[in-house]
Structures are given as structure tokens and as C-alpha cells.
Amino acid sequence: MPQDDEQGWITESNNNPEQQDNVTSLADRIGGLSTEKAEQADQGEKAEQGDQPQQPQQPKQELEVSVTLADQQADPNSPLYSASTFEELGLHENLLKGIYAMKFQKPSKIQERALPLLLQNPPRNMIAQSQSGTGKTAAFALAILSRINYDSSNPQAVVLSPSRELARQTMSVIQQMGQFTNVKTAFAIKDAIPKGSKVDAQVIVATPGALVDAVRKGQMNAKEVKVFVLDEADNMLDQHSMGDQSIKAKNLITSKPQILLFSATFPDIVRNFAAKFAPAANEIRLKQEELSVEGIKQFYMDCDNLEHKFKVLVELYELMTVGQSIIFVHRRDTADEIAHRMTAEGHTVVSLHGKQESSERDLTIDSFRDGKTKVLITTNVIARGIDISQVNMVINYDMPKTASGKPDSETYLHRIGRTGRFGRKGLAVNFIHDKESWKVMNSIEETLKKEIIKVDTSDFDAMEAIMKKELKD
């Protein structure tokens, strides 16, 4: 990557090689954007197109985003640097090449508002919330690629993901965005680090347990880490999930890095802990009622019993294969059982869950991502972050509940967020078969303030017509 300064920050390209002393770091330049530039960018609301190739989009409701600056003495005239193009964000030309090679058009709202804060000097922590499918991964990927020293091969950025599948997807985004740089990347996930070898890369994408093992075994040097990211941070900090491992990982990184927490949801109890995990952080958040994606139409089907549930699912197969579909269940054995029964009836489906071998999981998700398989039956292992644009239907075969058995509106949002990506249309279908599943759905509906519409299961032709209409309108 052209011209790095002595501190290792990516520097602005300079057309005159004799004037290298005038080159400043990208992060410094972002932090010094003029008030005039910010005011110009703030005039009027910019069309939000996300960080994906342009697609036919639904009219979008402008979301009210609350931003809290940790430093209240910051310039009151320019609390945020708003930009309508990636160029206005001051990104290095090699990163711009990567962005446009991926067919991105303009920054999404989370990128537009977060990146100037992420790249300020001195670095400051951030807690950022944005709807599913709005470009959070690209935001922290660009921040990482703007911070690292390309002359050093030591690990300088760590991204923790809750699942192997999301870690692999995140790595793909970082590699594509950095394709015109000489960034070195590596995984710290199960079966990725050969015994006795060392991790020799600037950017590490990991799952918490594997990262802790790598550092403790001396396979990874964590002394020069500048950026530490928790993707799907609410799940990573949840004490019933990966909270302990995430804390251990943080404590092993002694370099006092910039800590970035990104997620679509932040329950209050997790947000309070997040503030301690990432102290003095800038915050970007949404109101509860703004979390549900407008482009996703939500339905429920009132089934008589478990066997009727399966029958309705089979009847939906033709509609599920119009694009691609994900069926969420609560248990691993349920995923395998449904896949086995549907396959026996002549339907092509695959299952994915955490009990499978790493190689099998990789082959399954890659086949689904490539469109070779149309229907994926899974647990919550891919409920978060997985971005497959062809997915236009999500089925909650089992309604999501917490470990204690309570309705889980956060997981529900993440599940249905696997469809309707970047302004596309999507359907979420909930299967209800008893009082408990009805209670869970009603609680989620009330929490999210979003009506879930009943579809009659007695007339399959009418049911299919309603759903096809929603996908077309």
C-alpha cells in the first residue's frame, strides 16, 4: 500500500514523491475534517444505499439514530462527520479501489456516521448498533484496514465472531476490501492453526475459545493489537453465551487497543456490561421500535400439532426454492430429523449445526452461499450476521427462546434479518402449534411493535399466492 508513515498508519497518496513530508496519516486526516465539510455533508438527508450492489429497493423510513460522544468537549458544531460518498470519508485510494471492485455504491448510514469517529486520533472505543444488513462489517473492516501498519506482520487487529460461519464470512469481506493492499490475514478458529505453528498476520478473525488457546499456547503475539472488535457483540458479551471467553480474550490483549462493539441488538443488561467492556466509548444506537427491518413481511401459521407443522413445511417447499430459505429450529437433532424426513420425501435440503465436523460445516455453508442448495435447516449457529443475498424467506419452525425459556426477541430479529438484506424484500414465517409457541410469538410482537399476520394453513394454494404476492410487490 503506498506510503506508510513512521507510526504505521495508512497515509494519503501523494502525487509528488518529493513532498512525502507533507503526507499525513489517514486517521489524523479523518479527525481533522473541517467543520465546513461536515456542515455541507449534513445539509439534507442523503439517499441511503447501504454497502452492497445497487438493487431495487423499497421506500425507506428514515431512522432516528441517537449518537452519544464520550468526549462532551468535542466540537459542538461537528459532533459527527457525515458523508455521502466514500471519498468524503477520506479513505485511502487503495481501499476505495477495493470498495468499488466489490460494486459498492455509497456509504450506508452506519458507515457514514461511524467511520469518522472510528478513525479519529487518538483512537476511541465505540459501541455501534444498526439494523441487520446495513453494513456493519464493512464499517469495522475499513477501520481496521486504515489503522494497521503494513510494514509489520505482527497481529494488529482481532475480530471475534460468535460462529465459524460468521468468522469465515467476515474474513472474506476484509480480504476483498483489502485486495489492493498487502494486508496479511489469518484465522484463529477450530482446526485453522496447525499444531506448533504461529499466527503471522496483521488481521486475525477468530472465535473466542480458539483465540484464547492460540495466545496461551504462544502461537499468537497479542502485544501489538491496535483494534479489537466484537462482532454480534450482545451475543459475545452475554454471560449465558460467550461472555466469559470474550473477557478472557480481552484480558490477554495487553496493548490497550481500540475496542469496537457492533451488533443489531443491545439489550439493556448487555449494554450496561458493554459500557464497562469498552469504556469511554462513542455510541450509535437505534430505538427499539426501529430495529425491525421494514422490507421483511412477517407471518405466522397456526398449526394443529407437531406433525401438522411438518406437513405445512413440506407444502412450503416449492415456495422456499424460488430463492433460498433458512429454517431455524431449537435443537440439533431436530435439524437432522427434518432434513432426513424431507430428503426421504424427495426434497433437496441440508442441515447445519455446531455438532458437525468443521469441514462438513464449511462445505455446507459454502454450497448454500453458492446457491447449489436452496434450503438450509439450522440452529441459531447462523442466526447472526450471515449475509446471503438470495435468501428471501426465513422460517421459524421453532420460535426462539432464551436459555431460561423466555421469549427471545433479539434472536428473533437476528434470525429474520438473514433475509431482506440491503433493502431487498423478504418473508419471515413463524410456525405456531401450541400455547407456548403462541405466547412466545405474542411477546415478540409486543416487544418489537410489529404486527405478525396470520396465514390460513387450510388452503395451501391461497397461502402460496399471498406469499408470492408479498415477494413481488
TrEMBL record:
All copies of domain DEAD-box RNA helicase Q, residue ranges: 84-112
Enzyme class of the recorded protein, top EC level: hydrolase
Q: Where is the Helicase C-terminal domain?
A: 312-463
Keywords attached to this Swiss-Prot or TrEMBL record, sorted alphabetically, are: ATP-binding, Helicase, Hydrolase, Nucleotide-binding, RNA-binding
Enzyme Commission number(s) from the entry: 3.6.4.13
Pfam families according to UniProt: DEAD (PF00270), Helicase_C (PF00271)
Q: Where is the composition biased (Polar residues)?
A: 10-25
Helicase ATP-binding domain location: 117-284
Record's superkingdom?
Eukaryota
Compositional bias segments (type: Basic and acidic residues): 36-49
Where can the motif Q motif be found?
A: 84-112
Region named Disordered: 1-63
| Gene Ontology MF: a single term | RNA binding
- Catalytic activity annotation: ATP + H2O = ADP + phosphate + H(+)
- Record-annotated membrane-spanning stretches: none
Looking up InterPro entries in the UniProt record yields: DEAD/DEAH_box_helicase_dom (IPR011545), Helicase_ATP-bd (IPR014001), Helicase_C-like (IPR001650), P-loop_NTPase (IPR027417), RNA-helicase_DEAD-box_CS (IPR000629), RNA_helicase_DEAD_Q_motif (IPR014014)
| Family designation | Belongs to the DEAD box helicase family.
Name the record gives this protein: RNA helicase
What organism is this sequence from? Wallemia ichthyophaga
